[in-house]
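FAQ: What does a ligand-bound record look like?

Like this one, built around adenosine-5'-diphosphate:
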Amino acid sequence: MAVLLVVGARGIALGEITIGQVAASLFYVFIFLAPLQELSDLFERYANGTACAQRIFLLLDTQPEVQDREQVKHLEQVKGDVAFQQVRFAYDAKALKPVIDNLDLHIPAGQVLAIVGPTGHGKSTLVQLLTRFYEVNEGAVTIDGHDVRDLAQSNLRQHVGVVLQDNVLFSGTILDNLRLAAPNASDEQLIAAARKLGADEVLESLPHAYNTDVGALGSHLSHGQRQLVCLVRAYVADPAILVLDEATSAVDVQTERRIQKALRRLCEGRTAIIIAHRLTTIRDADRIAVIRNGQLVELGNHDTLITKGGFYASLYQAYEENTFGASSKAPIATPQPTLRLVTG
Ligand SMILES: Nc1ncnc2c1ncn2[C@@H]1O[C@H](COP(=O)(O)OP(=O)(O)O)[C@@H](O)[C@H]1O
Ligand SMILES: [Mg+2]
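The answer part, i.e. the structure of the complex:
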């Protein structure tokens, strides 16, 4: 362009060419440059595309560590009797101390079991073993007496519903996300389920109510709203075994209180394992298991554990003091400042 301008200017000055000819030449250079630019854009896109494709293929070619056995059982119906038998597990096989150490726990069908314990002591790991995202190193996890390793993974996960602390939704509307659990359900049935669970008030206040687009990974919803959608989804899926791992941690106390009854309804008629850091949520559980350093240290209902005056009693007292201000009771003997339980 610069050369053209200089030569053109000289040509005009000498009267060899006209301004129109220079302008036309400049125009031609413009037209010539545009495809070149596009060509270089194309190369950039191509480089980007191959890099992305490589990552996609890498993901597709990854072999999961947990594989179905050759002979697997398919259970049509399960009662929901869950047992951990002498379970020992470590994420890192070379670790000195296992995450779960020789744990025995039986949850009869239809019971609600709450698990409490300090952060990082293995509560969520138990859930991962039950859903077989990891396999035990020793012992077994059984459902209705069948080792989970003998079941097809798809079959196992049909019967176990899980709501976690941080859940991922897929882009689409709230109804689309609920429908994942029941592909044939009508809009009305899904909305009725949300109402039954008491999630309607929050979900209906969204810009387009149940037709609100949740965005990639559910990013347009708040943490608590995502948890509510997942609770409704678990309700719609109607599994025999339900696991709630800090599933109401991001819901405010009022909303939680409102869905408290609904949670009870959610647990009705199925085996439920509830891990919660607000102790009020778990007080009515049939039994409470206290996990410490990957071991079961106390088991019983709220009243027995309080009377026993052990670890749970001290947790509960600390929790009450935190929630309702200083209580008249004597100060706890062993303060547990690192507990997540006391911050609720
Ligand atoms: N995927 C993982 N890989 C390696 N270590 C893990 C993994 N998940 C959890 N852990 C470790 O296992 C221990 C128990 O974790 P977790 O069961 O999540 O505790 P929590 O009781 O808080 O739910 C922690 O020390 C944690 O660091
Ligand atoms: Mg956890």
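Follow-up question: can I read anything off the structure? Yes, for example: The two ends are 69 Å apart (CA to CA).
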